[in-house]
Amino acid sequence: MLATCCPLSNGLPRCCRNLLRSCRRNLYAVLAKLDAIVADFEQLEASLASPEVLGDQRKLRDASRRYKQMGPLVECIRKYRATTGDVEAARELLDTASPDERASLQAELEKGTAELVQLEDQLKVLLIPPDPNDGKNVIVEFRGAEGGEEANLFAGELLEMYRAWSVRNGWTFDVMAYDRSPMGGVNQATVLMKGETVWRRMRFEGGPHRVQRVPVTENAGRIHTSSATVTVMPEAEEVDIHIDEKDLEIDVYRSGGPGGQSVNTTDSAVRITHKPTGVVVAMQDERSQLQNRIKAMQVLRTRLLQRKQEEHEAKMSAERRAQVGKGGRGEKIRTYNYKENRITDHRIGFTLYQLQDVLAGNLDPVVDALTLEYQAEQLAKEIGAE
After folding, report:
1. Which of 5, 152, 231, 331 fits a disulfide with 144 by CB distance 3.0 to 4.6 angstroms?
2. Alpha-carbon distance 83 to 122, whole Å?
3. Which pLDDT tens digit goes with each residue over 35-72?
4. Which CATH number applies to 133-339?
5. Three-class DSSP category at 7
């Protein structure tokens, strides 16, 4: 059973359909740019063999990623141009064709016209500017927020939901740090998810997640509202962020377990402070100090990259919303209601009565709806739809 405040038809929420209709009216204004896009792609292709690009790791990585992103668009443009030529040729021949030839030409014209409609639909999606973080892995942080131990338990369930979703998608799921709460939930956990499409699918998941249910700690059977926060960050590569060693303060100490007892007899735990920004990362899950330091630096680079991107976005748009917020019960991107078997994404008004299926790792219906909304909005911006 499916219900949504934006009724679906042909897989698209009504708000998306309206945007795409407006985009169709403006598509012809975009077609004039297609030849320039192909020329840019061919120039990029040639640059990949130049010594200047081959000798610079950052330039080579960026050019290769852009080339891969542009490939499907350019292929579609070339096919669109070729099909347009075939349709125009068939139309010209139809005017002077004999009765015997007209039937086959008419069939060819109808087939070509139908192909053009399909290619236009593909172009509308492919013309959306690529996300610069596409293709990157993600680091995800989970925290219990409002609701005490119930919030921690829910944070742990969210972690397991994304683990199951990773298995479905063929991504790897590496738990880098896990601070277990007294009842087996998550005070705080950090996970590295790896996969070609992991950022594209996970980028909508950051924010406060709210749960409504009867907690295991509740004796009177009352429904409580609690929340956990999920932070999603593209993994930073070394060429993304330069960190000067003199800006780091590194402390080592013995790993601690529940209740404060030491679980290691050596100083293997590492805490790194980036002095210019005050960002602190601690890692103690690995047995060796070197492994903990490597993981801590990985998380530090990612947090600094996120900070840099957020500062840039803040300059571009004063309306940017913080991803995590305060984690209060009133703040939420999504609600998980156990009694109604309901999951609601408040950003697009999408509701699905398949909560247990989603918690088991089938997030695709929710993320697909978010992706359609995102694509429609980006396309409207790209081609000037009102």
Report:
1. 152
2. 14
3. 888 888 999 999 988 888 888 888 888 888 888 888 89
4. 3.30.70.1660
5. coil
